[in-house]
Structure formats: structure tokens, C-alpha cells
Design goal:
Low-confidence stretches: 1-12, 33-56
Number of strands: 9
Shape: globular
Strand content: 25-35%
Structural class: alpha/beta
Order of helices and strands: EEHHEEEEEHEHHEH
Oligomer: single chain
Number of helices: 6
């Protein structure tokens, strides 16, 4: 929603972008918005540049991603968060996927997270997933045979080349509860 007051435009920012702005020092927020092309659609989830940290640009980030499917296949959602190395949340994303398998949801969550990190201009990424299958496929231990997963795998591998350093690690489900919550929120929000 756009409002005008004293010849100034005021734009109500979606919650996910407003959250990113909270991580930027107050005196730099105006310059950040003016200098970076944000898409302000709430469900767009696209960010172009990185938030500034105390000592310059945040180079290394941690990604936690998860997918959920109720019925497998069933209503599905993807959720992810991007944090700095101190655990400060830089971005949270969620997307409703319609009817999909859990594996499709897991792969989509990872792809969306990497796409966002790339648009934030991140250079080093450590990905943490509770899907052992996706981790082993990304690390080359397992082949991707399913044609639907193969498409997501190939898109993710191409995206992977945009980072200077990237790694994929399996973590227990309990350590990925935030991303799990986001993937389930994506499903729940679609019901309204």
C-alpha cells in the first residue's frame, strides 16, 4: 500500500523484507532500499543484495531448508531460513507448492534457499538439511533417478556454481525445526 504525505511516498513493506531491514543499521536503511531492487510482492521472496554487517559484507551464510508434504503426495510446502555465522536470521522464506511429494518439497526448499542466497550476493554457503537423500544426492553419493527430481537437481547444480564455496550437511530433524515450521506454515497459509 502506497501513501503520500508532504510530497513523500510511504510504502508498507511485506513482513519478510521488513525483517531483513531490521538487521541493517538504522542510518543505512534508506540507502539500502534506494540502492537495491526489491520486489515488494509478499510472496515473491526475491532479494537482490546482502545486508551489511558490523565489519563489512556478510560473506558466509548458513541455510536451513525443509520440505513438507501431507499425504506424500499431498499438499506441500517449502521453508528455509538464511542466517549469518552468528545465527542471526537474515531471511526466512516459505512457499506453497500445491500437490507434491515430500522429496519434491525438500528439493524445492533447497533450490529456493540457494536462489535467495545468490540474489543476496552471498559467496560462501553452508546448507543444512534433515533430508539425507538430498544431501547425498548433492554430494554425489546417490544418483538422481526420478525425472521430476532430476530437473530440480540439475537446476540446483547450476545454481551451485554461482557460489565460491558451498557445502551440504545432514542434520537431525530436531535441529531443523525452524525450517520445518516454515514449510508447514506455507501449507497452512494456503488454507485461508
Amino acid at each position: 500500500m502506497e501513501q503520500k504525505k508532504n510530497n513523500m511516498k510511504f510504502v508498507e513493506l511485506p513482513d519478510d523484507i521488513a525483517h531483513v531491514l531490521q538487521k541493517i543499521p538504522r542510518e543505512k536503511r534508506g540507502d539500502f532500499l534506494l540502492g537495491h531492487g526489491f520486489s515488494l510482492k509478499k510472496d515473491d521472496q526475491k532479494i537482490n543484495k546482502v545486508t551489511e554487517q558490523k565489519n563489512g559484507i556478510c560473506k558466509e551464510v548458513y541455510i536451513f531448508s525443509d520440505g513438507a508434504s501431507r499425504g506424500n503426495p499431498g499438499e506441500a510446502g517449502a521453508g528455509y531460513l538464511i542466517t549469518d555465522s552468528d545465527g542471526n536470521i537474515l531471511y526466512e522464506g516459505r512457499k506453497y507448492l500445491g500437490i507434491a511429494t515430500n522429496n519434491i518439497a525438500e528439493w524445492t526448499a533447497l533450490f529456493l534457499a540457494l536462489e535467495t542466497a545468490h540474489k543476496m550476493n552471498m559467496q560462501e554457503v553452508k546448507c543444512f538439511l534433515d533430508s539425507e537423500l538430498v544431501v547425498k544426492q548433492m554430494n554425489g553419493a546417490y544418483k538422481v533417478k526420478n525425472p521430476d527430481l532430476r530437473i530440480l537437481f540439475e537446476k540446483t547444480k547450476i545454481l551451485q556454481t554461482h557460489f565460491q564455496k558451498i557445502s551440504f550437511a545432514h542434520i537431525p530433524r530436531e535441529q531443523n525445526s525452524h525450517a520445518d515450521r516454515l514449510s508447514n506454515e506455507a501449507i497452512e497459509q494456503n488454507k485461508f
